[in-house]
Amino acid sequence: METIRDVMIRLGAEEFTGRVFECQYFDRMLEAGNEGKAHILNVHGTGGIGKTTLLARFGHLAGTSGARFMLMDMRDYMGNPSLFIEDLASKLGWDNGKSPRGTDLAGHVLEQLNRSTEGKKVVLALDQYEEAGSMDPWLRETFLPGLRSDLLIVIAGRYPLGGPWKLSPIWRRLIISLPLAELQYEEARAYLRQQGVTDEPLIDQLWLLSSGHPLSLSLLAVNAGGGQFRDSHKRETLAELLQYWLEEVPDEILRSLVYAASIPRSFDLEMLQRMVDTELPDGVFERLTKLSFVGSSARGWQLHDLVRDAARQTFRERQPDTFTLYLDRLAAVLNGRIHSKLTGGTSAAADIYELISHSGHPILRAHFRYNRSSANYWEPVTQQTLPEMEKYIERRKVAAKTARIVCANPDNDEWFHYKLTAEESLLRLSGWNSAELAAFGLDSFRLLRGPDGDVLGLAVMLSVRADTLAYLLRNPLSAPFFRLLPKEHILRDNESFKFIFAVDVLNPESRDLRSDSVNLIMEHVLSGVCLAACPPALPFFEDSHISMGFEPVIGIEKPYIYSTGIQASAYQLDTRGRKLESFLKKVARFRAGNDSAQQHYRMPQHQVDESLLSRLTPRELEVAEQIARGFTNKEIAGSLFVSEAAVKKHLNAMLQKTGLKNRTQLAAELLKLRVDPGVTRKK
Question: pTM of this prediction?
C-alpha cells in the first residue's frame, strides 16, 4: 500500500516541468553502469531555484530505473557526523535498537552502503549542503573517499563546491558542475497551466514578473488562482521572496549594502563606496560577493535578477530620498567613467550600457533590465566555418516557430509584448544572398557561438565601399535606401559605413540571445560608425531600432516587400566623429542634478537673441527643430523617444506660449533664427 510520502513523490513527478537537460544528464549517469568511474554531480543555484524539487525528480527517475536513491538533508544533522551516520543507517534499513553502536558505527554503515551497490545502482544525494558546516571536512576527507567508485553522489546547495574542493586537483576532476538557471518561457508556461493559470496574457505577465524563477512562479501562481493578478500581489510576492533570500544576510551593514547594490545592474567596490559615500569596513564587500544570490560577471558583480527587483522595490518604497540620492551618485560615477575612458581612447561600453539601463529609452531599459554578461561570443566567419553558417540558416528555416517576446521597464513595470509568427521570425534571413555577399569577402558575416561551440546566431553587415556600392544599389532590400543618397556623398563619407542585412538568433524568446544581438549593434555604434538597416515594418523590429537610437529615414521610394507582404522600413544611425557624443546625449539621457557630469557631453552651444522661442523649454525646442525639418508627429515621437500624444502636447504648449497659429509659423520662426537642436537661450 502507498504511503503518503509515496503519493507526494508520485504527484510531484506528475507536476514536474522543465529541467529537461538536467534530467537527461542524470539518466545518462544512471545508465552508465558500474564502470568504476567516480562522479560527484554538484547541483547548485540560488535559493528557490528548484534544487530540492530537482532532487525529488532524480529520486523518481532512479526508482523508475531500478536504482536505489537515498536523500540526506544536511539541515537535520547540525554539523554532527554521528547524526548523519545514524540517519543513513536508518535509510539502509537498520533497526536502531539492533544496529552496531559506538565508534564502529560509521565503518559498519560505510561497509553496508558499499555492499548495497553490488548489482544495483545507488545514488547518495546530499541536499542543502550549505548547512553542512563543520561536517564538510569529515565528508570530504573521511566519509566520501571510503565509498565505492561506482556509487553516484549528488551534492546540492546554494553554492558550487569551492574552497578545498576546488583547490584539490583530484576533487576537481571528479566533480561535475550542474548550475540551475531559471525556467525558459515554454517550461514556465507549462507549469502555470498545470496550476490552473490558462489566460495567455496573465501567463505572460507572471513569466515576466518571475523571470522564470521556480519559487517566484509558484507564489505568483497561488496569488493568480482567481484568474487575476494585481500589483499588490507582486509587491507581496517580492517581499516574501526577499525575506527568504535575506535569511543568509544576518547583519544590518551587509543588508544595507544589498539594498545599495540593487540599484546598478552590475557593481564593484569603488562604485558602492561612492554611492553610499563611505569606505566599507574590511571584509564586508567580500562577504557580499559570496552570497548565493550574487554572481560575478565581466562587469563586476550582479545580484540575482529577482533579488535585485525585490530589494530595489523595497528600497525605493521605504527610503525614497536615499534611493534617489544613490541613483544620482551612480549616474555621476558612470558619467565620470565614460568621460575618462572616451578621453583616454578606451572602450566605455560597459559604463554606457549601465547608464542606459537607468536613463535611456524605456524599451531599451526593459531590454537591459536582465541583460547579463553572456557566455556566448561573436566570431568572424572563415572558409572553414562558412558551411556552419549555411547549416544555421537551414536549421532556422526548419525549426522556426512562433515567438513571444516579453520585457518590462524596471522603473514602472510597463511591459512590452511582441509576437512573431514562424514566417515573420525568418524575414531577416531574406532579401539577400550569402554567395553574392561572400564574393566581397567573409568580413560581412559573424557567427554567434555558445560556450559549447554551437552556432546560435548570425549577423550580416556589408561595408559600404567602392566595390560594394553597385551591389547595394541593385539589391532589392538595400537599393531604396542608397538611391536617396548622392553617390559621391556615399563614397566620400563611406568610412565605417555598414548596411545591416540581418542580425538573427536561433530563439528570439531568449533574453540572453537578444542581449547578444543588442550588444553587437551597440559595439559597432560605440566604435563610431554609420549603420543603415531596412527591417520589416513590424512593431518588434521598429521598436528595437528606435530604442537603440536609430532614426527613421523619410522619403524611401518603392521599399522592399517581404514574402509575407510586409513592407520594409528604413533606419539610420550615425555615430562617426563628434556624432557619438550627440548619440550618447540622446540615448543615455542624464538624470537631473548632475550638471558637472553633464558638462562632459554637452554639444557646442549656440547663443541666440531673445525671441518668442526663448520661452520654450529645451524639450520643446527639440520638438520645434523636428517640426522645422518637416517631420510628422509620429516621426518626431520615434526620434525623441516619446509618445505622439506627448508631441501634440508640446506643440500646443509652444503655440500657446509664442502666440503663433500653427506648426508652419513655428517652423518658419525657428528657421529664421537657425536654431540647432542643442540650442540654449541667452540669459
Answer: 0.56
